[in-house]
């Protein structure tokens, strides 16, 4: 069964460093998303991406964040200068054209020291 | 952001019995609702969904009920199995929209 994959599973970085989180969505999906879950809090939406552009973003998704689909398979989230409060699980999701169900990857645990 | 609320942080059920997980929402613009199951250190796994034009959707042991006037939905699991023990998230979206808005989750424990 097709699934969303994410790498790395765990990333540790120093405050102020740039990180890139990678995702491979399900191959025939057209809509791509990033969410995050800070420990003990809700899963919260960051950004959605369709047709090579951002379709919606939350107030969390400020200028420090960017997304890219550099080729036909990868979808990346870049945080330019990480802050302590960026420590969270980051989930990538994708969905197809017809149904509204989003399928999530296993997540990347980002730890900012 | 309290648009989707799951007021029960946890639920404990005996194996073989029914599990009922509840969810309330406040935003009347939501018209598509989903339930996800999550194990520790894994991503949310899609379980079942319902559009606002329906009041019930069934898939095997899982049934979702939607009461639009009360802005309430519930997930029924019958019969419950120990493997169902996980965190269950309710999520909502606009049918033509993008983002999912999640509830805080309910920890389900099924005792054998």
Morphology of chain B: globular
Helix content of chain B: under 10%
The pair of chains with the biggest contact is: A-B, 24 and 24 residues
Based on the structure, what is the oligomeric state of the protein chains?
heterodimer
Order of helices and strands of chain A: EEEEEEEEEEE
Structural class of chain B: mainly beta
Instruction: Give the biggest beta sheet of chain B.
Output: 6 strands, mixed
Order of helices and strands of chain B: EEEEEEEEEEE
Mean pLDDT of chain A: 94
As residue ranges, the low-confidence spans of chain A are: none
Describe it for me?
Chain A is mainly beta. Chain A has no helices and 11 strands. In chain A, the strands form 2 sheets. In chain A, strands 2, 4, 5, 6, 9, 10 and 11 form a 7-stranded mixed sheet that branches. In chain A, strands 1-3-8-7 form a 4-stranded antiparallel sheet, with no helix packed on it. In chain A, a hairpin with a 7-residue loop joins strand 9 and strand 10. Chain A is globular and about 40 Å long. Chain B is an all-beta fold and about 110 residues long. Chain B is built from no helices and 11 strands. Chain B is globular and about 40 Å long. In chain B, about 35% of the residues are buried. The model of chain B has no long low-confidence stretch (mean pLDDT about 95).
Nutshell version of this structure?
The complex is a heterodimer of chains A (113) and B (112). With 113 residues, chain A is mainly beta.
List keywords for this structure.
heterodimer; A: 113 residues; mainly beta; B: 112 residues; five-stranded antiparallel β-sheet
Topology:
The complex is a heterodimer of chains A (113) and B (112).
Chain A: E1 5-7, E2 10-13, E3 19-24, E4 31-37, E5 43-50, E6 53-57, E7 65-68, E8 75-79, E9 88-95, E10 103-104, E11 108-112
Parallel strand pairs in A: 2-11
Antiparallel strand pairs in A: 1-3, 3-8, 4-5, 4-9, 5-6, 7-8, 9-10, 9-11
Chain B: E1 4-5, E2 10-14, E3 19-25, E4 32-38, E5 45-51, E6 56-59, E7 62-67, E8 72-77, E9 86-93, E10 101-102, E11 106-111
Parallel strand pairs in B: 2-11
Antiparallel strand pairs in B: 1-3, 3-8, 4-5, 4-9, 6-7, 7-8, 9-10, 9-11
């Amino acid at each position: 069964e097709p699934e969303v994959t994410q790498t790395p599973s765990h990333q540790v970085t120093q405050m102020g460093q740039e990180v890139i989180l990678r995702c491979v969505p399900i191959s025939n999906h057209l809509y791509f998303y990033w969410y995050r879950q800070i420990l003990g809090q809700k899963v919260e939406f960051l950004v959605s991406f369709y047709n090579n552009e951002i379709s919606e973003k939350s107030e969390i998704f400020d200028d420090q964040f960017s997304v890219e689909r550099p080729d036909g398979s990868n979808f990346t989230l870049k945080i330019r200068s990480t802050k302590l409060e960026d420590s969270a699980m980051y989930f990538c999701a994708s969905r197809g054209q017809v149904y509204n169900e989003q399928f999530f990857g296993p997540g990347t645990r980002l730890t900012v020291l | 952001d309290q648009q989707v609320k799951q007021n029960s942080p946890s639920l404990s059920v005996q194996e073989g019995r029914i599990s009922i997980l509840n969810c309330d929402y406040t935003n009347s613009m939501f018209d598509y609702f989903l339930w996800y199951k999550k194990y520790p250190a894994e991503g949310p796994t899609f379980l079942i969904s319902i559009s606002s034009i329906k009041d019930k959707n069934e898939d095997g042991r899982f049934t979702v009920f939607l009461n639009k006037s009360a802005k309430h939905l519930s997930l029924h699991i019958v019969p419950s199995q120990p493997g169902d023990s996980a965190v269950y998230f309710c999520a909502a979206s606009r049918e033509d929209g993008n983002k999912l808005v999640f509830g805080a989750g309910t920890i389900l424990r099924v005792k054998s």
